Amino acid sequence: MAKVDLSGLPVQLNNTMRLDRVPCELRCTKEEFGNSKASGNPMFTRTWEVISPETIKLPGIDSSVLLTGTEVIQYLPLKNVKEPEKTTAMLMRFKQEQIKLGLNADDIDDENPALECEGIVARGEITSEERTAMTRPTPEEVANGVKPQPILNEDGTEKKVYYPKLRAIYGKSEASMNKQFA
């Protein structure tokens, strides 16, 4: 049996790595419509998967970072039930994205819309959303009123973590995916 050198393989993207405006190609793997749990606003939830580039270089990391397969969740609200004056801006954002993706942008049934995005490959840009790392109380602790608390670094500052976030969709990609494997 021969030894295989694994030292040159890329490392998997994780929540300690911050992304700054990474252009990429993404495939919509899932599209749902429902009401936001937090606000009650009707919205699309689209799950995008990075398909290109395969790897990227990040400052302070010696190895390449594997980007393909990274999932990004996008929320596209259509209506603001608490602040109706914000609804027009939400609909404009939705319409612009539909146009960029070559999808219907003439009208929408805001109660039972067509789900058209799944399978589409798009050009876009991802970045990171910074959050404070929090403890995760056990179910028993939660039952006793224990709430999540910020995790602190050795110097007493709050530890930060990073989650991939869709910054923009620029348009439909010319790349095609083999539906058998998509």
Shape, principal axes of CA atoms: globular
Describe the main β-sheet briefly.
Answer: 5 strands, antiparallel
Strand order of the largest sheet: 6-3-2-7-8
The count of β-strands is 8
Which structural class do you get from the secondary structure elements? Answer: mainly beta
Radius of gyration: 20 Å
Low-confidence stretches: none
Number of separate helices: 2
Mean pLDDT: 92
- What string gives the helices and strands in order? EEEEEEHEHE
* Distance between the ends: 35 Å
Helix content: 10-25%
Proportion in β-strands: 25-35%
Please describe what this structure looks like.
The protein is mainly β. The chain is 10% helix and 35% strand. The chain has a 5-stranded antiparallel sheet with strand order 6-3-2-7-8, covered by helices on one side. Strands 1-5-4 form a 3-stranded mixed sheet, with no helix packed on it. β4 and β5 (65-66) form a beta hairpin.
List keywords for this structure.
8 strands, 35% strand, globular, 10% helix, mainly beta, five-stranded antiparallel beta sheet, 182 residues, single chain
Set out the fold topology.
Blueprint: E1 11-12, E2 22-35, E3 42-52, E4 55-56, E5 65-66, E6 71-77, H1 87-100, E7 121-132, H2 139-143, E8 160-172
Parallel strand pairs: 1-5
Antiparallel strand pairs: 2-3, 2-7, 3-6, 4-5, 7-8
